[in-house]
């Protein structure tokens, strides 16, 4: 920068031409300073430049010169303490005022705190010793003496600023010159760098870059700027990392080298490149994910600012909770000054595991046209395959670090416009910068340089694209990545580009949406095909200072900027197959055929090869088919069928599965990280009838009395039952007839007497709707021959089917009744009396007889109807002259005695005949007689018929009973 202005009084002493020349030389001198790098050497350059020497007292032919010797021939001696005296060349001869611009630079050891400098002006005499001029305002000393503080550049002594003039007092009375006083001479000079000098214009003074910063002026450096370069802009970034996520070796130096080679020339020093300092600082505790937003979540250590500022925020001291600044900074007594200085000049980057609710996003940074100071690299959630697909972990870290840094310099995904605004337009073919998703990683163009855009490229208008020019994109030497139908295409920059992708004929004014490339990342989804795609260079428009950004303050980061994810980076050169599955029936009955449709897609950046689909039905074996390969964005469908089993449980969710597999164009299998959507399922709910039957019966009855049976059926399934039939089987010794049935019904459709003595009642239920139900109530009577304590059990069964011919196992239920007995009256009547006493032959008594022996039904030659009538009983009881009528009459009399509780089946009997026959109870006797009547009345059976008639006569006459 130009030297400080010479005081007005001195300037007025200069001639106009000399003033103009001096001003010009001051500017040139200011621009020519190229100090050496501070940290590379142990010295610091300091320059004294003598700008003007002129006489204050007369010095022509008197004073310095003797009479007749004209004006002085000036030269000087400049002495840096600790260095040899430096004698300057002589100025023009015989001049009372000269602007010699004598310059001396010494490299001062950085151990020196104050550098003493003295200047002596002399007049050269060829005939005598040279004369000394008095340039000191102090008595007794002709030397101008100053001290330069080498930490902050302040100047003390005869000159109290870095530039100005000092005049001698002329030593009145002779002083040190004895009897020959010397005239006062003025010397104007500057010392560079000045305390405020910033040779490279980066915001750090030269003294700060060489020595560091002394905040309290105690001549002790409180903070240094590591490896500062006074010739180039220094950019400092503190890098911290979570446990296990330290940047890979060489990553930081590689990104620093990118800036070292930056296409930037320092306008003040002429040096090229930028001095980026990525300071590898310290490890912070691990967190799986943290937030990087303005709204700070509750809790500790779940937020970027928890780490940078601390939570609670305690910046300094041994109890400091934040991580910004080094541990030494936070422990320093000047901590507050140091951190305040760094907050205004140092960016802060953190290598973390992952960001909250952001999947595998690679990083995040503050982005504004005025820049930003905070960013994260969030690659801890990436998998090995993700790293492999971009060239390894180190390559991913380098690219992401450079990308996120670019955002803090005000670069968007499309760079920065001429007016300083951020360009967010992503994936522009003519923008070849690591800021674009097309170029962030070297997974499409494997040799793309790690760099920001160095030179501006041709502007592309999507509605006026030239497919005929050669080269296809002027200013571009690398392959061109552009979109065709949403898929990336790699074209040559040295040949015409088929922007539309539809082949010849080619147009000089084609239209295409060439930056719409969602196969790179959803962030490259652009809907317009009429955009103007600008492509200015990046390096000449970086925003170095961030203190004007609204996001500079701690805790303020601005809107979330979508960033490239590991998933996107992985699939950009992979086939990423997807499977979708639908079925034509969300609900199906047993035996139904379900048709499944599989939709296979490829959302990856590479076409698929070796593509196949496997359909696995809910039942049955999987089916695998090879399908044609799919281009990026392509899709096709395949259909499969399966049959719902009849045996499936009602309400079962039948799940069909489709899975697709494939490789990319190079034959590499699809990576595991993208396989989550390679499988799809579709469900169908099965509906079948489920019949249930319950049976209830009167818990206990006396022998011969009616048992009430209640049978309920219910379809608990979600489909109708078809052809349903209810059967109820009464055990032997339980009699049913519709004539005696006093239940609520309905009556059975059929009654079947089985050979084993059981009786089956059948009802046709037909179709029973889902949740349909029905009840049958009927009565039946147990035989009078059952003794107390006996039990009778009936069994219900429902058979049914379903749609599509499905048949199901019958469902059953049972009910049990206990037989009780009434104490007999012990007054049986003989058959003759029963023939006369119709009043005692009540309907109930006759019904009990019918339940015990049905042979009397129809005895009057009427059609048997399942009920015993008075007429039928009378026909049996009257005129019992011959066998078997006699025996039948006695049998009816005995059963009437049982029915009217005069005797019981268990009543003990004993006579000679009964004993001979081995009978003990009335029941035994009746069963014996029943068996007799079942035999033909032949001569062989004459005795049996006689015995049977006798024993019943004895019972009916109350002779055989033993109560």
SSE topology sketch:
Layout: H1 8-13, H2 16-31, E1 43-55, E2 74-80, E3 86-87, E4 97-98, E5 102-109, E6 114-123, E7 131-132, E8 144-149, E9 155-157, E10 163-167, E11 185-192, H3 206-210, E12 234-242, H4 251-260, E13 275-284, H5 304-308, H6 327-331, H7 335-345, E14 346-351, E15 363-365, E16 374-377, H8 384-389, H9 393-408, H10 437-440, E17 460-461, E18 480-484, E19 487-491, E20 532-533, H11 566-571, E21 577-583, E22 587-589, E23 593-602, E24 609-616, E25 623-626, E26 635-643, E27 653-663, E28 679-687, E29 691-697, E30 700-702, E31 707-715, E32 721-730, E33 734-735, E34 750-753, E35 759-768, E36 773-782, E37 791-801, E38 807-820, H12 831-836, H13 843-852, H14 870-877, H15 885-899, E39 908-909, H16 912-917, H17 922-933, H18 942-956, E40 961-962
Parallel strand pairs: 12-13, 12-14, 14-16, 22-28, 30-38
Antiparallel strand pairs: 1-4, 1-5, 1-11, 2-3, 2-6, 6-7, 6-8, 8-9, 10-11, 15-16, 17-20, 18-19, 21-23, 23-26, 24-25, 24-27, 27-28, 29-31, 31-36, 32-35, 32-37, 33-36, 34-35, 37-38, 39-40
Helix pairs in contact: 4-9, 13-15, 15-17, 15-18, 17-18
Protein name: DUF11 domain-containing protein
Organism: Acrocarpospora macrocephala
GO molecular function: metallopeptidase activity
> Can you count the beta strands?
40
Specify the CATH class of the largest domain: Alpha Beta
Overall outline: rod-shaped
Mean pLDDT: 92
What would you say the CATH architecture of the largest domain is?
3-Layer(aba) Sandwich
Q: Tell me which oligomeric state these chains represent.
A: single chain
């Amino acid at each position: 920068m130009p030297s400080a202005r010479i005081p007005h009084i001195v300037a007025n002493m200069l001639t106009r031409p000399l003033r103009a020349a001096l001003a010009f030389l001051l500017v040139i001198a200011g621009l020519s300073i190229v100090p050496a790098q501070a940290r590379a050497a142990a010295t610091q350059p300091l320059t004294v430049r003598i700008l003007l020497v002129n006489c204050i007292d007369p010095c022509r032919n008197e004073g310095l010169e003797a009479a007749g010797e004209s004006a002085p021939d000036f030269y000087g001696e400049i002495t840096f303490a600790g260095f040899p005296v430096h004698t300057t060349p002589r100025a023009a001869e015989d001049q009372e005022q000269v602007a010699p611009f004598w310059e001396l630079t010494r490299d001062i050891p950085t151990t020196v705190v104050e550098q003493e400098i003295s200047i002596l002006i002399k007049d050269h005499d060829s005939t005598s010793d040279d004369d000394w001029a008095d340039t000191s305002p102090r008595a007794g000393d002709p030397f101008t003496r100053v001290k330069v503080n080498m930490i902050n550049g302040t100047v003390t002594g005869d000159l109290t600023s870095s530039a100005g003039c000092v005049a001698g007092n002329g030593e009145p009375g002779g002083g040190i010159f004895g009897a020959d006083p010397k005239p006062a001479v003025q010397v104007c000079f500057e010392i560079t760098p000045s305390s405020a000098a910033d040779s490279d214009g980066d915001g750090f003074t030269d003294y700060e870059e060489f020595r560091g910063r002394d905040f309290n002026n105690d001549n002790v450096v409180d903070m240094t700027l590591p490896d500062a370069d006074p010739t180039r802009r220094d950019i400092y970034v503190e890098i911290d990392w979570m446990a296990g996520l330290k940047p890979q070796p060489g990553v930081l130096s590689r990104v620093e080298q990118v800036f070292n080679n930056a296409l930037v020339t320092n306008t003040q020093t002429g040096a090229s490149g930028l001095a980026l300092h990525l300071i590898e600082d310290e490890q912070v505790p691990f967190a799986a994910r943290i937030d990087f937003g303005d709204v700070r979540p509750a809790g500790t250590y779940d937020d970027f600012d928890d780490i940078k500022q601390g939570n609670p925020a305690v910046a300094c001291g041994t109890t400091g909770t934040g991580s910004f600044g080094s541990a030494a900074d936070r422990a320093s007594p000047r901590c507050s000054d140091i951190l305040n200085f760094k907050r205004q000049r140092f960016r802060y980057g953190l290598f973390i595991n992952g960001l909250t609710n952001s999947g595998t996003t690679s990083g995040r940074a503050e982005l504004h046209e005025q820049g930003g100071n905070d960013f994260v690299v969030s690659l801890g959630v990436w998998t090995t395959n993700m790293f492999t697909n971009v060239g390894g972990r180190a390559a991913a870290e380098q690219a992401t670090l450079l990308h996120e840094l670019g955002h803090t310099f005000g670069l968007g995904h499309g760079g920065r416009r001429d007016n300083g605004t951020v360009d967010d337009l992503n994936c522009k073919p003519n923008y070849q910068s690591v800021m674009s998703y097309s170029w962030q990683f070297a997974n499409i163009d494997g040799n793309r340089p790690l760099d920001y855009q160095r030179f501006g490229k041709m502007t592309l208008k999507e509605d006026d694209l030239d497919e005929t020019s050669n080269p296809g994109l002027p200013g571009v030497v690398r392959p061109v990545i552009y979109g065709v139908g949403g898929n990336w295409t790699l074209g040559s920059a040295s040949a015409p580009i088929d922007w539309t992708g539809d082949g010849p004929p080619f147009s000089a004014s084609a239209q295409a949406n060439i930056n719409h490339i969602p196969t790179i990342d959803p962030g490259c989804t652009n809907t317009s095909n009429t955009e103007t795609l600008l492509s200015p260079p990046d390096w000449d428009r970086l925003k170095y200072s961030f203190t004007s950004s609204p996001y500079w303050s701690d805790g303020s980061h601005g809107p979330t900027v979508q960033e490239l994810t590991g998933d996107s980076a992985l699939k950009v050169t992979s086939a990423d197959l997807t499977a979708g599955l639908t079925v034509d029936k969300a609900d199906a009955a047993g035996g139904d055929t379900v048709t499944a449709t599989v939709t296979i897609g490829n959302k990856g950046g590479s076409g698929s090869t070796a593509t196949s689909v496997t359909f696995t039905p809910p039942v049955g074996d999987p089916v695998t088919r090879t399908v044609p390969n799919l281009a990026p964005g392509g899709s096709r469908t395949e259909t499969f069928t399966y049959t719902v089993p009849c045996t499936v449980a009602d309400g079962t969710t039948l799940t069909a599965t489709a899975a697709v597999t494939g490789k990319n164009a190079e034959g590499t299998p699809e990576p595991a990280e993208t396989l989550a959507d390679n499988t799809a399922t579709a469900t169908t709910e099965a509906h079948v009838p489920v019949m249930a039957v319950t049976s209830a019966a009167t818990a206990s009855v006396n022998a011969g009395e009616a048992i009430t049976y209640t049978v309920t059926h219910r379809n608990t399934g979600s489909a109708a039952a078809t052809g349903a039939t209810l059967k109820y089987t009464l055990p032997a010794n339980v009699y049913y007839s519709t004539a005696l049935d006093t239940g609520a019904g309905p009556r059975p459709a059929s009654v079947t007497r089985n050979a084993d003595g059981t009786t089956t009642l059948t009802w046709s239920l037909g179709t029973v709707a889902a949740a349909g139900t029905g009840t049958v109530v009927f009565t039946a009577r147990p035989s009078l021959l059952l003794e107390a304590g006996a039990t009778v059990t009936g069994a219900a069964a429902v058979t049914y089917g379903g749609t599509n011919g499905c048949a199901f196992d019958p469902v059953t239920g049972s009910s049990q009744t206990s037989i009780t007995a009434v104490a007999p009256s012990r007054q049986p009547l003989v058959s003759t009396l029963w023939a006369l006493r119709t009043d005692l032959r009540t309907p109930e008594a006759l019904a009990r007889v019918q339940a015990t022996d049905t042979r009397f039904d129809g005895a009057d030659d009427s059609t048997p109807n399942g009920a015993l009538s008075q007429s039928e009983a009378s026909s049996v009881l009257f005129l019992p002259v011959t066998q078997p009528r006699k025996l039948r009459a006695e049998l009816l009399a005995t059963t009437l005695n049982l029915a009217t509780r005069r005797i019981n089946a268990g009543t003990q009997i004993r006579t000679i005949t009964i004993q001979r026959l081995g009978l003990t109870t009335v029941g035994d006797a009746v069963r014996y007689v029943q068996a007799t009547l079942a035999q033909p009345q032949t001569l062989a059976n004459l005795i049996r018929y006689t015995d049977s008639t006798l024993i019943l006569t004895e019972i009916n006459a109350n002779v055989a009973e033993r109560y």
